[in-house]
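Both lines are retained for reference:
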Amino acid sequence: KHFKKEVKAVLKSIRKHGAYMTPETLEQVLLNPDTMIKLCTTLKEEQQKRQKLETEIAMKNQMIAELNPKASYYDVILQTKDTVAITTIAKDYGKSAKWLNNYLNEKGIQFKQGKVWLLYQKYAENGYTASKTHTFEDNNGIVHSKILTHWTQKGRLFIYDLLKKEGILPLIEREIQRAS
């Protein structure tokens, strides 16, 4: 009951004066115009704060919209538990494995030893790659084995971040950008 009574008093004051003022505040406004100026200044500052917060919210919503394609790409990539060949990663970008291997070589991330690409020590301990032995039979029935470097999902994300810094996006993100 007390709360309802107070709410009614506040609403009555707003209807009568256009704002809620306690009797003491109303008396100060009538006796000293500077009080009204101060109240109006405070109201203006509050409105500016609200506008600033609304702008920040709009900017953050924009950032979320811009980051959604990246999050979607991460979700797609992280669903795969196995390692992947460099060819698969390169295809995500519409590139060839040769192009991507050369790019990583030029960036000082990997080097070629014989026919196998290996990471420089700085990157080798980060869990970006795993070696796999591939066994196959040639036309003459001779069985051969070769070691291939495959990339883990962590390594795939490393490549994604590296290429993104250069403005090179995977095809899926390019399509999303074109659509929006």
In short: The two ends are 54 Å apart (CA to CA). Strands lie at 110-113, 116-119, 129-137, 143-151. The helical segments are 2-17, 23-31, 33-78, 86-92, 97-106, 121-124, 153-165, 171-179. The longest strand covers residues 129-137.
